[in-house]
Amino acid sequence: MNRLRVLEAIREGGRVSRSDVARATGLARSTVSTLVAELQEAQLVVERDEDRVVRRNGRPPSILTLNPSAGAVLGIQLDHPFVRVAVADLEHTILAEDSRAVNVDEEASVALDAAAELADEVLARAAVDRSRLLGAGVAVAGPIDRDSGRVATGVLPGWGEVEVEAELEARLGVPVHADNDANLGALAEAVLGAGRGARELAYVMLSSGVGCGLVLDGRLYRGAGGTAGEIGHVLVDEHGPLCRCGNRGCLETYAGGDALVELLRRSHGDDIDVERMVALAREGDPGCTRVIADGGRFIGQAVATLCNYLSLERIVVGGVVAAAGELLLGPLREAVRRFALPAAADRVEIVAGQLYGRAEMLGALVLVVGRSEEAFSGVLRTAVGR
User: CA-to-CA distance for 64 and 90, rounded, in angstroms?
Assistant: First the structure.
């Protein structure tokens, strides 16, 4: 039990000294030193010489971290048009990944089967034995009801009765933790990217649709039913286009990547997609530049309301459309300055995400590493022969 406590203290602290572990666990320093030596012998903990900081007496403390190769985790992204799966080590370094085109919205069982098949493929490609797997994190393109474990009604039509975690646990044989993709994008940017250091943060995800994840007082905020941050479905025009959620005139129908691309099909042909639209805009194409700027203004109005409600410190804009850079961010910032209270607009910083289209997948990996206590305990017991 004490060995597990020491391991958890190192996992939660990330990079800690033996003294840090002793304070976190309440164990004597001599006991910690003995247990750390055993964990090092089992190759679960390593020392990082490059991280040493010299103390006043001139003797640098030894910095301990988990051994990244002590286990592996799966990340699964269920987006509207595709399924993507990656396997990574405990420092979130992706070892292998693959994707498959699937109509995720309508075909839940097909998407889940594809995720399981891709998991087998990436594990084989990375030469990771299933015995090393601690669990899987899943980014779902819709809010997850925390009570039922199901996708909230009306967002993914084919998922109404599907318990995502239970279905994937049955297919993968490991613990599964699922959350909304924008929430996990917010988690990844807060831990690894442009949101580091901010305690009041919104991550606005612009890809095929529009999503938003919230970090309030330093913690991921999901709301009572898991639907907090769904700005893609705020009303723009009650007589506007029909949205996949069943309502009319949602923000997503005006500023989502798919909606912007649809405006360009007459002038740019049916084969244009979101990535191509962004690339052409960056090359100076006037039509693509215009629709992205218009989308930025619509998003900015919704973000302005969010700033008024929450007095946010930082807005991180990510997703595929965010690769347009200032072509998108300039109009978005202008709309926030126009529609938010001056005090809220002056305080908030609006920046591009640093993880680009990788945030949701990385967030799934961060989630599962942070919630793998039971599985990691099993790995520890096996490694140390207890």
Answer: 14
- From its phi and psi, is residue 338 left (phi > 0), alpha (psi between -120 and 50) or beta? alpha
Residue 287 CA to residue 347 CA, distance in Å, equals: 33
Predicted confidence (pLDDT) at residue 189 exceeds the cutoff of 70: yes
How much is the average pLDDT of 133-144? Answer: 90
* Beta-ladder partners of 96: 87
- Distance of alpha carbon 86 from the chain centroid: 13
- To the nearest 10 degrees (0 to 180), the angle between helices 29-41 and 373-384 is 80
Contact 186, 214 (CB under 8 A): yes
Phi, psi for residue 283 in degrees, rounded to 5: -85, -5
pLDDT for the residue 161: 79
- What is d(CA 264, CA 310) in angstroms, rounded to the nearest whole number? 35
Assess contact for 96 and 122: CB atoms under 8 A: yes
| Cα→Cα distances 162→45, 305, 363, Å | 38, 33, 22
pTM beyond 0.70, yes or no: yes
Per the structure block, which two tokens stand in for 18?
A: 């033996």
